[in-house]
Specification:
One of its GO terms (molecular function) is homocysteine desulfhydrase activity. Its EC number is 4.4.1.11, 4.4.1.2. It catalyses: L-homocysteine + H2O = 2-oxobutanoate + hydrogen sulfide + NH4(+) + H(+); L-methionine + H2O = methanethiol + 2-oxobutanoate + NH4(+). The protein is an alpha/beta fold and about 400 residues long. It folds into two domains: about 15-255, Aspartate Aminotransferase, domain 2, CATH 3.40.640; about 260-395, Aspartate Aminotransferase, domain 1 (Alpha-Beta Complex). The protein has helices at about 5-10, 40-45, 60-75, 85-95, 110-125, 135-140, 165-175, 185-190, 225-240, 245-255, 255-275, 295-300, 315-325, 355-360, 380-390, and strands at about 80, 100-105, 125-130, 145-155, 180, 200-205, 220, 280-285, 310-315, 330, 340-345, 370. Strands 1-7-6-5-4-2-3 form a seven-stranded mixed sheet, with helices on both faces. Strands 8-9-12-11-10 form a five-stranded mixed sheet, with helices on one face. Strand 4, helix 7 (about 165-175) and strand 5 (about 180) form a beta-alpha-beta unit. The protein is globular, with a radius of gyration of 22 Å.
């Protein structure tokens, strides 16, 4: 039987209803622990001789269905679910590094990932350096003898700069370095980093995978089972697990991921066109823009431009914030991938932990706005932006 299309896998993969009393929807195993028929079976379960469930921190049927589905969607051998995106990031790094190791990062990462890297450096001597990664030469210059991981976001949050995954992988393989890609902004529907050669892909499943703003979760998918097995004891002992109910919500969210992503992308294209032509707007950063400096990368490794847009305006920090305050339908919030259109000010919100000088190096300015385009009628999104622009003082400049 030929491989199913992603739209079908999002709904069916990893679940067989006949194994669960014919239930069309995967059951919610809302339990903390599991019983053993005999003491001997309990012993076998703990020793690994039996594959039965023991305790939901170690494994749960509902969570396992989600992990199986995500592994297939991202074309990996195994997946692990976590209680948050940052639990996924931290467990991934903890399983790959030791004190004194070195990490190379894309020039721009999520604020909390930056905070974690700072903690690793200050407390455990794990150093990190940022790199544009525009050329292989730039990577070779920053890689050290003790570099164990290359960690990238693409698109980068919030500047929407793209990283050529295959180019990074080519260098990493020569140096025997693990490549980790944060794929949150794309979801498995728009981009599959493992198929491009990277070793580990992770998501804040809170965003597009959940899609409804009602769950906090993270997912890691590994190219090999060995990489996933190395993470299992870290997840077990640090405890950043996913609850069964959150897994159930994510399975429900995945069923509509394809149709949601199509609408997110279509709306984003319309909003981009509006922003691109408005006199208040200075620059727009969107991977679907044919004039975007990384557009060729977008065409190579993404199916569409995504649902997130960043833009700068002709104004100060205060005037930029004023735009947000005048919005009526669009909500000021720091997440993305929800049904609602969300907007935020990266310099003082998601990336406020990043020092000002480093923000500037990353391309995060006081007049930058990040918008996650939702599923509303695009005309209503544009109308709200239009009236907010009209009511600001920037137009008087």
């Amino acid at each position: 039987m030929k491989k199913k299309q992603i739209e079908t896998m999002l709904i069916h993969e990893g679940y067989e209803s006949s194994e669960y009393q014919g239930s069309l929807t995967p059951p919610l195993f809302q339990t903390s622990t599991f019983t053993f028929p005999t003491a001997q079976h309990g012993e076998q379960s703990f020793s690994g001789e039996s594959n039965g469930y023991i305790y939901s921190r170690l494994g749960n049927p509902t969570v396992h269905i989600l992990e199986e589905r995500m592994a297939t969607l991202e074309e990996g051998e195994a997946a692990l679910a976590f209680g948050s995106g940052m639990a996924a990031v931290s467990t991934t790094l903890f399983s790959l590094i030791r004190a004194g190791d070195h990490i190379v990062c894309s020039k721009g990462i999520y604020g909390c990932t930056f905070g974690l890297l700072e903690m690793l450096e200050n407390r455990f001597g794990v150093q990190h350096d940022f790199c544009n990664m525009s050329t292989e030469e730039e990577l070779y210059e920053v890689i050290q003898e003790n570099t164990k991981v290359i960690f990238i976001e693409t698109p980068i949050n919030p500047t929407m700069k793209l990283i050529d995954i295959e180019k990074v992988v080519a260098v990493a393989k020569k140096k025997n370095i693990i490549v980790v890609v944060d794929n949150t902004f794309c979801s498995p529907y728009l981009q599959n980093p493992l198929s491009l050669g990277c070793d580990i892909v992770l998501h804040s499943a809170t965003k597009y995978i959940g899609g409804h703003g009602d769950v906090i979760a993270g997912i890691v998918v590994c190219k090999t089972k060995e990489l996933a097995d190395a993470m299992l004891p870290v997840r077990k002992d640090t405890g950043g697990i996913m609850s069964p109910f959150d897994a159930w919500l994510l399975l429900r969210g995945l069923k509509t991921l394809a149709v949601r992503m199509e609408r997110h992308c279509d709306n984003a294209e319309k909003v981009f066109a509006f922003l691109h032509s408005h006199p208040i707007v200075k620059e727009v950063y969107y991977p679907g823009d044919s004039n975007h400096p990384d557009y060729y990368i977008s065409k190579k490794q993404m199916r569409k431009g995504g649902g997130v847009i960043a833009f700068t305006v002709h104004g100060s920090k205060e005037e930029t914030q004023e735009i947000l305050n005048h919005l009526k339908m669009i909500k000021i919030a720091v997440s993305l991938g929800d049904t609602e259109t969300l907007i935020q000010h990266p310099a003082t919100m998601t990336h406020s932990v990043v020092p000002k000088k480093l923000q500037q190096k990353m391309g995060i300015t006081d007049n930058m706005i990040r918008m996650s385009v939702g599923l509303e009628a695009w005309e209503d999104i544009v109308d709200d932006l239009q009236q907010a622009f009209a009511n600001t003082t920037i137009q008087k400049i």
